[in-house]
Amino acid sequence: MSDDYLVKPGKKAKLDGRDPADTGGLKDEESARTQLADDIVAIDKLQDRLYAEGKRALLVILQGMDTSGKDGTVRGVFNQTGPLGVTVTAFKRPSEEELAHDFLWRAHLAAPKRGTIGIFNRSHYEDVLVVKVHKLVGAKEVDKRYDQINAFEKILTDNGVTILKFMLHISKKEQRERLQERLDDPKKHWKFNPGDLDDRKLWDDFQDAYETMLERCSTDHAPWRVIPADKKWARNAVIASVVRKTLEDLDPQYPKVTWDPKSFRVE
Ligand code: ADP
Question: Where is the composition biased (Basic and acidic residues) (predicted)?
């Protein structure tokens, strides 16, 4: 199931042809929820092994339009994972200090340590998305960044970090409903940001920026997946299954001790 959503390196992602309401191979919501429950417990057990092994790391990058469900994915997929081994970094508008460095500086600082899972809620990709659409940096500068990102991610993967990149693909119609919900439900008012309406007006420009990002930065070492995200249950189930499968393939091992446990006695 997982690889249906991969963007082949160098190929166009063709977002228009990808249905945000797709539920992939999932039968229905109930079976997806059952599968998710099983996968998130498995992810916790695998993470424990990754931590004990202490040699490699997993980086999960989440990108998507406002309301696409980045926070919900973190909550839905990693709520069984031991907090000791997970770090979540939300990439906001850069601080003065961050702007005084190259754009990848803060991403590198937040990269996961060996033995842990790092989650980027937004990421260095904002520097070729919002930065491009709002023309915060010149076009030539942005154009150089795709290769710089690929090189940066190669450094990470060459050093034992496996990278999973998920674009949460929602429809414009679904975004309207989710934004309206934030206005209608007092418990969601805090999530509403009038700036999101300005970005919604630039929907097509953002989709174009996403297309370019997917085409230029889906690499063999760190491919992109476009995850249908109109249905939250399908989104979580698909992502959890990819994370589980990736950790299973890494197959982290508890370290073997050089001493004989039988030679000790706990009095
Ligand atoms: P979120 O929408 O992720 O829940 P916020 O409402 O605080 O959180 O939004 C963070 C904002 O920071 C987004 O509008 C995003 O586009 C912006 N942002 C993130 N990285 C950058 C960047 N490198 N340059 C400019 N803006 C950025």
Answer: 13-30
